[in-house]
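A brief tutorial aside. Many learners find it easier to grasp structure tokens once they have seen a single protein encoded end to end. The record that follows does exactly this for MarR family transcriptional regulator. Read the sequence first, then the structure, and try to relate runs of similar tokens to stretches of the chain.
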Amino acid sequence: MALMNDDLRNSLGFLLHNAARQLRKRFEARGAEYGLSSAQWRVLVFLIKGNISAQARLAELLEIEPISVSRLIDRMEEAGWVERHPDPADRRVRLLQPTAKARAVFDEVRTMAADVYDQAFAGMTEEQRTALIAGLQTICDNLSDDETVCNRMKKDTDSGS
């Protein structure tokens, strides 16, 4: 049974998009004090918690073109967040490593991100929060292939915890 709504502004697609946009906007405002964009934060999460180190693999996980990841990493390297190293097994591969600077602020930025999520969840009970997260994961699973970002991100970050 599909949830139908005559007002498309209150439809699943619009609400998901607007919620994601608002979260990103709030994170961008708060992350600016660290000099981190939301895209850069996602990279650090994958590098630190997910043990992802190949630049090409990061592009797959973020679902963006390798050239876009390369530019993002260029900016992060210039800002001192990451270092690139050649892969000893394959000179075509660039391995990424978070710097000491990134590791030093990771928990602090994670706490700031948690504050943004707490703002987003304000007025919801713990049961509603849990149901929302479970529902979004189900939607992600239902619409994803076995190896798309929803499943890979969960697997990759679970293995790094």
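Self-check: The chain has one domain: 16-160. If you spotted this yourself, you are ready for the next section.
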